[in-house]
Amino acid sequence: MILSDKGFERELLQLTVFCKEKDNGCNWTGALRDYQVFEKDEHLDNTHITSHNCEHCNANFPTKYALDDHKKDSCMKILISCQLAEHGCSKQRFLRSDLGVHYLTETHQICLQSVLEEIMKLIQSRFNGTDRAATNSTSNQFNLSSLISTADTTSSSTSSAINYFYSQLQQLYESLTTVTKNFQPLNEDSIRLSTESLRQQNLLQACQNEINLIKQSKAEIDSYIAGIEPNHEILLQELASLKQKVEDLQSISYDGTLTWKISNVSEKMADAQSERQTSIYSPAFYSSPTGYKMRIRLYLHGDGNARRTHMSLFFLIMRGPFDAILKWPFEFKVTFCLFDQSGQQRHIIDSFRPDTKSNSFQRPRSEMNIASGIPKFFPLPMILQDDNNYIRDDTMYIKCLIDFGDISKIILPYALSLNPALPHHVQRNMIRVETDRRVQLQQQSASSTTVTNNNNSGQVNINKFVNNTNSQTIQLLHSMSNSQSMLEDPNHASMLTGRSLAQQHVTPKEQPPPSKKKKKDDGDDMTDDVMNE
Predict the structure, then answer these.
(1) Which residues partner with 198 through β-bridges?
(2) Which of 255, 340, 399, 501 could form a disulfide with 494 if both were Cys (CB 3.0 to 4.6 A apart)?
(3) Of 301, 288, 244, 490, which is closest to residue 404 (Cα–Cα)?
(4) Residue 147 falls within a domain, yes or no?
(5) Is 466 inside any structural domain?
(6) Mean pLDDT by 10 residues, the chain (533 residues)
(7) Domain boundary among 29, 58, 77
């Protein structure tokens, strides 16, 4: 059995030892009992914890001494004071990471300059004092031992001062190196930023001047617009009126006929179907330079009972400059013609006679009278066909003829089918020749008929027929002479349908009776002479 020696244990605990973390920077020395023995917690548990964290930057260190060195020299999050705080620099604490910024402050620069001047003065005074001591010793020929003693003392004091100031200068040099290193780029940045700031200020001032000019110009423009805006609508209305007048003057007629060219038919038809614009007006035309002023109105998609089934065509009397000296009511037959553009001469012709009791044909009291005419002028299914003969290149032509001489229905289709390119006097001659030819045909037909009859009665009948024929011929020629003004315009050649062409070879007795036509007035009826099938 082994027994412990208490005395020897006490001697061991009194031995002086050093910390096992000496190589890691621990400088602790002391009695073994104070280090860590048995279950006592002394130096190791208090100092050498497994890990040490910096409370400022949260960095981890293996020993407390390493943590202390970190706080002392390298922690960037710890608050420190300037080394020159005791020499007049700011005593305000700041983060070590801001040390370079502090070195560039004006307060630190002034303090640093002051400290350097003091150090230089102190060094100079130290060296001057040493030189004077050596000179006095030589000149006065002190004893050698006294001189050596004084020299040693002075030299020792001077060396100590020089070492102190050298260390201070070394620190200041390091500070100056840091400051210089950071100051140059900062100085360049400062100059660049100053230049850029000046340029931006100049640019801002220029922009402000431009903005002021723009605001002033805008105010002037707004004032000008406010001044002319009230007249804008009036000017637009006057412009539209002038444009319409120019268009009317370009196609104006003074002989009672109108050849109306309608362009963009598909667009106008779509407007009529959607009811954006249900009707269109023709240019105005006149019966003579001092006569009636008239125009026609077309409903491409029909009007009233004819809506969506027929095109409706109406005649209007307008207020004219010579209405006061004209004869009223208006009583002349009106003929409408829709051109067949295929060259087959299958034109659409329809006519009506005015109802002299209707207000539509009295002297106008407003800009224009109520329209009257032919609601079912032409069936819509035929005009809507893709390859119909009446619309080519999205254009149709309609003629309106005012019959001042009561032209016979026998001659009217022929007169309207003449080539509009022919001169007026040629057309008149052709109409006269055609009239004579038809009269001769009637005479020959009448003569052939009377041969088989009783001579006496036949002779009487022949004489009567010849007399009647001659009377009709004279009346027809007189009618053509009276309607001379109607044929002055080469565009008077209206169009015939196939049924109208066939009627050129039909005698007057075979003509169908006139049909009744509605007018665009609320209560009046109108009788029209129509070329029916």
Answers:
(1) none
(2) 399
(3) 288
(4) yes
(5) no
(6) 68 78 72 60 58 83 79 86 81 83 81 79 66 51 47 53 68 70 70 86 91 91 83 85 77 86 94 93 92 96 93 96 95 93 90 94 95 95 90 94 79 78 77 84 82 54 53 48 39 36 32 39 37 31
(7) 77
Q: CB 458: neighbour CB atoms within 10 A?
A: 15
Residues with Cβ within 8 Å of residue 80, at least 6 apart in sequence: 93, 94, 95, 96, 99
Type of residue numbered 484: Q
315 phi and psi angles, rounded to 5 deg? -115, 135
Residue 447 maps to a domain: no
Q: Are residues 224 and 318 in the same domain?
A: no
The pTM (predicted TM-score) of the whole model is: 0.43
Longest dimension (CA), the chain: 204
Report CA 340 to chain centroid distance, whole Å: 46
Print the domain residue range for 151. Answer: 106-246
Contact between residue 147 and residue 137 where contact means Cβ atoms under 8 Å apart: yes
Please enumerate in sequence order all residues whose Cβ is within 8 A of that of 473, keeping only pairs 6 or more positions apart, or say none: 435, 436, 439
Number of domains in the chain: 3
299 CB neighbour count, 10 Å cutoff = 23
Side chain identity at 290, as an amino acid letter? T
Encoded amino acid at 163, one letter: N
Does one domain contain both 379 and 519?
A: yes
What residues contact 452, with CB distance under 8 A and at least 6 apart? 458
